[in-house]
Design a protein that fits this description.
Layout: E1 6-9, H1 14-18, E2 25-29, H2 37-44, E3 49-55, E4 58-64, E5 74-76, H3 114-120, H4 131-140, E6 145-148, H5 154-161, H6 170-178, E7 183-189, H7 196-209, E8 215-220, H8 237-258, E9 263-265, H9 267-272, H10 295-303, H11 352-361, E10 395-399, H12 401-414, E11 419-423, H13 441-448, E12 456-460, E13 483-485, H14 489-496
Parallel strand pairs: 6-7, 7-8, 8-9, 10-11, 10-12, 12-13
Antiparallel strand pairs: 1-5, 2-3, 3-4
Helix pairs in contact: 7-8, 10-14
Length: about 500
């Protein structure tokens, strides 16, 4: 187990006054050894801390006077100090099996760790969940959690997870719900396997057995050109329409019985089926926004100025198991870059501790993507500014295939001939991959090489993790300077109005 290492200290904080310094490794807090940032936060919330610290090989004692609940003001370098609980399912739709060789190894690691479900919204199948985990979830009120259901039929779920424990692990979902823990569910729909009658059965079982679920997202699987699963394929337009029809029909049932719609089809289904997006009001607080539920509606409202607050989008399609901010692990993570500013190679490499953790876990690593289980670990990007927006220059909005269909009509309605959407076809992954978060440097180089110099090019930050695209390139490698823009409607509208 690694020790939490201090990477930043807030000026004037209890940590600064008490004598902690960047680089200190925490051996214990009041005699206890934290195994993750959840335990860390509970311990540092206490008053008058007594810490054992490893400072360059010397074990020191640091006493920090503070009041209970006051922030310590120290940020650590990781969320988990013990091993990530890796996933031992072998889902045929898993996106990591569909990654090309040669990417940085952190992208090939997935987890099935309930702690990361609580901290970052990663989905867990519960196939590695234990009684001890349940006790901790209940005792520490680790809520909300996010569970990959996929199907309630035991045989179908076993087939989808390729794990015999898939037939029984939803018993943990029932136990978690019994204790009042908020849970959001996910169904990755695979054509011919868990759609149609099986989807109806699943939603019926959810109403009957798990009505306390906060929401359920029906999302399509992603298929790259590297997939070697003969039973996995992309949805046809007709199949997408059937998923939309099924979820909307069940929304009425859930609403009639529970007073809320419960199940939602991902935006991608509406695009595939060429259906209009539902009114944004149906999504409530957009709890499943990060799962592609209501993203388009939220973006449209933000762009039109109908929303004063944005629905956050995490920068980076693959999220890193990042550290605990000085304000606590529930503090918001900063976006990459600044509104209207460019980022050129801001860096963000894995630390030695991260690499060691990956070394220990890589042999058991599985996947992310359509599976809905956790995302691989990649270092977060520091904010960096390299260029200022150029006034009176034509603007190109870079986005993926699906993003172009959402943003295109908004740009047309502006009546701005100087602004156009530049769709970046994903040739790197191929298949049905059209989400903006999976844009890579190689595809952007191909597209931008044909674009004129002197224009403004807006790049959404969702495609950057640790300042890099998934293929390892950075914005500095692109043939045209780009302005990295936070991925929401208000930020885009602000960038477009910079010189209007």
């Amino acid at each position: 187990m690694s020790r939490p290492r201090i990477i930043s200290i807030t000026d004037g904080s209890a940590a600064a006054i008490g004598g902690l310094v960047v680089g200190d490794e925490i051996v214990s807090i009041d005699g206890e050894v934290p195994r993750d940032v959840i335990a860390w936060q509970h311990l540092v919330d206490e008053p008058d801390l007594h810490l054992e610290v490893d400072r360059g090989g010397m074990i020191l004692t640091v006493d920090i006077p503070k009041l209970a609940g006051d922030p310590l003001g120290a940020e650590v370098d990781a969320a988990l100090f013990d091993r990530v609980r890796t996933c031992d399912n072998h889902c045929p739709f898993c996106f990591i099996y569909q990654l090309p060789k040669g990417l940085r190894r952190s992208l090939y690691l997935k987890d099935d760790d309930y702690r990361l479900s609580f901290l970052y919204g990663n989905f867990t199948t519960l196939t590695r969940f234990t009684e001890a985990d349940l006790e901790r979830v209940i005792t520490e009120r680790l809520s909300p959690l996010y569970v990959s259901i996929h199907a309630t039929n035991p045989d179908v779920r076993t087939t989808l997870l390729r794990n015999s424990r898939g037939a029984t692990s939803l018993r943990w979902l029932r136990a978690i719900l019994d204790e009042g823990i908020e849970v959001h569910g996910q169904l990755v729909i695979c054509p011919g396997i868990n759609d149609g009658a099986v989807l109806d059965e699943t939603l019926c079982d959810i109403l009957d057995q798990y009505p306390e679920l906060a929401s359920v997202a029906a999302v399509p699987l992603g298929i790259s050109k590297y997939s070697n699963e003969p039973t996995m394929r992309a949805h046809t337009a007709e199949e997408a329409a059937m998923v939309v029809d099924t979820t909307e029909r069940w929304q009425q049932t859930f609403d009639g019985v529970l007073g809320r719609p419960m199940v939602f089809a991902a935006d991608e289904y509406y695009l595939l089926a060429d259906r209009p997006f539902p009114d944004g009001s149906i999504y409530g607080d957009f709890d499943m926004h990060e799962d592609g539920i209501g993203m388009a509606a939220a973006f449209q409202r933000e762009f039109a100025g109908l929303a004063s607050d944005v629905v956050g989008v995490q920068s980076g399609f693959f999220h890193w198991v990042d550290g605990a901010p000085a304000e606590g692990y529930r503090a918001p993570r900063p976006h990459v870059g600044s509104m209207g500013c460019g980022v050129a190679n801001p860096g963000g490499e894995l630390t030695d501790a991260d690499e060691a953790l990956l070394d220990a876990s890589a042999q058991d690593a599985d996947a992310f993507g359509g599976s809905g289980v956790a995302a691989p670990m990649v270092a977060p990007a520091p904010v960096g500014v390299s260029i200022a927006p150029r006034r009176n220059a034509p603007i190109g909005v870079l986005t993926g295939g699906y993003g172009a269909r959402v943003i295109g009509p908004l740009i047309e309605d502006l009546g701005r001939p100087d602004v156009r959407v530049i769709e970046v076809v994903n040739e790197f992954f191929g298949g049905n991959i059209g989400v903006t978060g999976l844009m890579v440097g190689a595809d952007l180089i191909r597209v931008l090489s044909d674009e004129p110099e002197g224009n403004r090019y807006l790049l959404p930050d969702v495609c950057l993790t640790g300042g890099r695209f998934l293929d390892g390139l950075t914005p500095a490698d692109l043939p045209r300077q780009v302005e990295v823009v936070v991925t929401d409607g208000i930020a885009l509208r602000t960038a477009l109005e910079f010189d209007s």
